[in-house]
Design goal:
The structure is a homodimer. The first copy, chain A, has two domains: about 120 residues, 3-Layer(aba) Sandwich (Rossmann fold); about 200 residues, 3-Layer(aba) Sandwich (Rossmann fold). Chain A is globular, with a radius of gyration of 20 Å. Chain A is α/β, with parallel strands linked by helices and about 375 residues long. A six-stranded parallel sheet of chain A has the order 3-2-1-4-5-6, sandwiched between helices. The first copy, chain A, has a six-stranded parallel sheet with strand order 8-9-7-10-11-12, with helices on both faces. Chain A is about 35% helix and about 15% strand. In chain A, helix 1 packs parallel to helix 6, helix 3 runs parallel beside helix 4 and helix 7 packs parallel to helix 8. The first copy, chain A, is built from eleven helices and twelve strands. The interface between A and B is large, with 46 and 46 residues.
Chain lengths: ~375, ~375
């Protein structure tokens, strides 16, 4: 596994994919939002990916489609991908169902002896035809969202020497996972014992472990998150990957269970500059950042009272000067450190995390 | 089905149990909190229940154990229960697992040709031994929590002529379901086209339909609740059964998904007077009612901005004069109508619901 942009590593347990030659399937969904999984794997597992499979864009490069991944080729069939031992489903469509048109490709990959890795809600391993083919060929189908979480949170005191930071968002797909990985890697690069704690399918594919909390039975979400925290609190800092937002009309339950289950000391708010409404819901305007901060802090008060300590700006729609202006505006209006962790680098946000750790050590 | 205390009926669709002769299994859990399902069935399906099965309390009556159900006998075996065609699991233990010691009773009930109804997280129908026995005997095992919810909320406008009221709570097991049934039945008795909308296993056993939202995959909770609303919005009023509370460290995700999925016009806050801490979590004191009201209204603002319009007091621990004093205190401190819907009757709360409906009609 390679984490790009720093040589720091994030946690490694029960690896989902290590030292693989991966083909990422994105057929017809070659853009950063629908292809969020592809895009993030291209960013953080660049060295493991041999091709993008999308017959509608064959001949292009990963960089052409996703803005990351450099010259990794986009191919139209597995024949063109060269030697490969794993096929990863690279999209995460709402509802999580696999398009029927992908079945021949999946069967072909299995015939070639490739492992199949999927983060969809529809478990590929439960599909009779795919399961039978995989069994016959001796190939593993790994459904990353599959889980058996059934424990309630104990709500017992956590290890206070471990600083818990949660990324939160104004909306879905704004960059909470990228921000979390950058913060953990940045802290490790500064010599801090920090871990990225994955809570979604793509994060798990990158980290090698974690819990797909949006797939957990709702009664057990808080407990599943607490379990993740308990498993990682030997570190000095954990950066917990956020999911959606507590203000989101479709997913708010997931987000609040995550907040209360991990009871963070600090939160980093992530948003995409220039996004006018909830992604895919043009009739629902986004709440102001101030309202999101206030709601999260109010709800955090029911546990340890964590506060928002910084803002990560996803400025992909902006030019450089616009991004700088946006950063200044947010710093002033929210009174918090702010930066696009990709464009500006995560330095200011790392400082905020380390300052919080220092304040807590003093008290 | 019989709804006690009024002749009003609540909604009937896909009945879980109609005109049955029911034995309620509570073995060793004969008290109102652990035996919440038993207690509520005794209250609202009194006429359908022939016996309580609890060998540790045989010879007592339902009223002795649960304070409801009158002279319904507590028996030590199915032999003593008389003719019966359904066995209902009457407890809802945290985590939802069936005690191993109950297996012989379940198998005996199946051998007698009785239907098995369970609200546990552990699906009895998935148990190979029980499933095989039921198949052989031609008996149904009905796992009320089983669901296949996989739709996201559309967040499209709802029918505004239907008033949506949600019961919310300071904690779990305070009486949200009882309050919801009493409100719906009370409105029907006043000639209002009102429906009780069940969101938990016991509510579903009483109403005959609903969605067990704490068992829904967390990603789909908001959507499952919206679907329930869409199915019931032909009524003039729906009383949606609340679950847990958004301030609960173990279950808050369920509660927020429910709030945002149903987007209520009004909320009725339910609490148990004299409860010092979260049930079963003595290290976690309860937040003040005012904070719970404020948090719910703040989170409701991300949708239609519903407000708390009344308080239902569960005064089972109090003497009559204490309950009246508590009612006065809450009326003053929260500035809202308040009543124990069982002890004082639901009149004041029904007035509050009808006043809200009238205000909305005028605007």
């Amino acid at each position: 596994m390679s984490v790009v942009r720093s040589n720091a590593t994030v946690q490694h347990r029960e690896p989902v994919s290590v030292a693989r030659r991966i083909v990422v399937l994105t057929e017809g969904h070659g853009e950063p939002v629908a292809g969020k999984t592809a895009s993030c794997l291209l960013r953080y597992r660049t060295g493991d990916i041999v091709a993008i499979l999308d017959s509608t864009r064959a001949g292009a490069t990963a960089a052409d489609l996703f803005g990351v991944g450099g010259a990794i080729p986009v191919v139209s069939s597995l024949d063109d991908a060269g030697a490969a031992d794993e096929l990863v489903i690279g999209i995460a469509p709402p509802g999580g169902r696999v398009p029927a048109s992908w079945r021949p490709v999946l069967l072909e990959a299995i015939r070639r002896g490739m492992r199949i890795v999927s983060g969809l809600h529809d478990f590929l391993g439960d599909d009779p035809e795919l399961a039978a083919a995989a069994l016959e060929r001796g190939v593993e189908i790994r459904d990353v969202r599959k889980n058996t979480e059934r424990d309630l949170a104990s709500c017992q005191p956590l290890r206070e020497e471990c600083l818990r930071v949660l990324t939160i968002g104004q909306d879905i797909s704004v960059g909470k996972m990228v921000t979390s990985v950058e913060l953990a890697a940045g802290l490790v690069a500064r010599g801090v014992d920090a871990a990225f704690v994955a809570t979604g399918q793509t994060g798990i594919m990158i980290a090698g472990s974690g819990c797909p909390i949006d797939r957990v039975i709702s009664d057990f979400v808080n407990g599943a998150v607490e379990k993740l925290v308990l498993a990682n609190q030997h570190h000095d800092v954990m950066i917990v990957e956020g999911q959606a937002t507590i203000s989101h009309p479709q997913y708010s339950g997931v987000s609040l269970g995550l907040l209360h289950g991990c009871d963070p000391h600090g939160m980093i708010l992530v948003y995409e500059a220039g996004r006018p409404h909830h992604l895919g819901l043009p009739h629902l305007p986004l709440p102001a950042l101030e309202r999101v901060v206030e709601a999260y802090e109010r709800m955090a008060d029911f546990r340890g009272g964590g506060r928002v300590i910084g803002v990560a700006i996803n400025s992909r729609r902006l030019h450089a000067d616009e991004a700088d202006a946006e950063r200044d505006r947010v710093r002033r209006s929210l009174g918090l450190p702010a930066a696009d962790p990709i464009r500006h680098g995560p330095g200011d946000l790392l400082d905020a995390v380390q300052a919080l750790a220092a304040r807590r050590r003093r008290t």
